[in-house]
UniProtKB/TrEMBL annotation:
Domain of life: Bacteria
Name the UniProt record assigns to this protein: GTPase Era
Subunit-level organization: Monomer.
Full protein segment contained here: 9 to 174 of 305
Annotated segments matching region G2: 35-39
Signal peptide (UniProt feature, chain positions): none
GO biological process, one term: ribosomal small subunit assembly
Keyword Iron in record: no
Region G4: start-end pairs: 118-121
G5: annotated span: 147-149
Membrane topology annotation: Peripheral membrane protein
Family: Belongs to the TRAFAC class TrmE-Era-EngA-EngB-Septin-like GTPase superfamily. Era GTPase family.
One GO MF term: GTPase activity
Amino acid sequence: KSGFISIIGRPNVGKSTFLNRVIGQKIAIMSDKPQTTRNKIQGVLTREQSQMVFIDTPGIHKPKHKLGEFMIKVSKNTLREVDVIMFMVNAEQAIGKGDEFILELLEGTKTPVFLVINKIDQIHPDELIGIIESYKGKFNFSEIIPISALEGNNIDNLLATIENYL
Ligand code: GDP
Ligand code: MG
């Protein structure tokens, strides 16, 4: 199995930390090589059962007012072409305008969207239910997976779940 995964989310939620942890030394990071005009390969993870190509989606992390209609179209086209969208959020922060902008772009997409709640090492386990509930009302996520990219918690489960969608 193989497939493309787009990691999207506000700045500082932990996207790079996740990629660095997952991709480790196993593969070469090719962040400067454009795959197409719109997708940038950030890394490839080769597992026993699968190969996962992580790509960046230009434009999607920026605030709305700076985005032209063309960029929005480009972002949407990219998101349509991937197998899984990982929408990463910070467990420490309430849902914000930046998150809502991204969820708006995702509205109506047929691509499975995972809510990945990162930095769970920073919260009390009891808080997780409330965080999950606050996002559940905003979007129909295919999967909701809490992780700590920094400490490595639940990353294996996330990757195994992604594999099911490839
Ligand atoms: P990006 O902008 O989404 O790529 O975010 P980065 O990966 O650059 O991370 C932003 C900051 O959050 C850095 O200081 C990371 O060390 C920190 N960070 C990322 N993941 C975690 C996590 O799971 N737990 C904690 N406590 N910090 C994290
Ligand atoms: Mg980054």
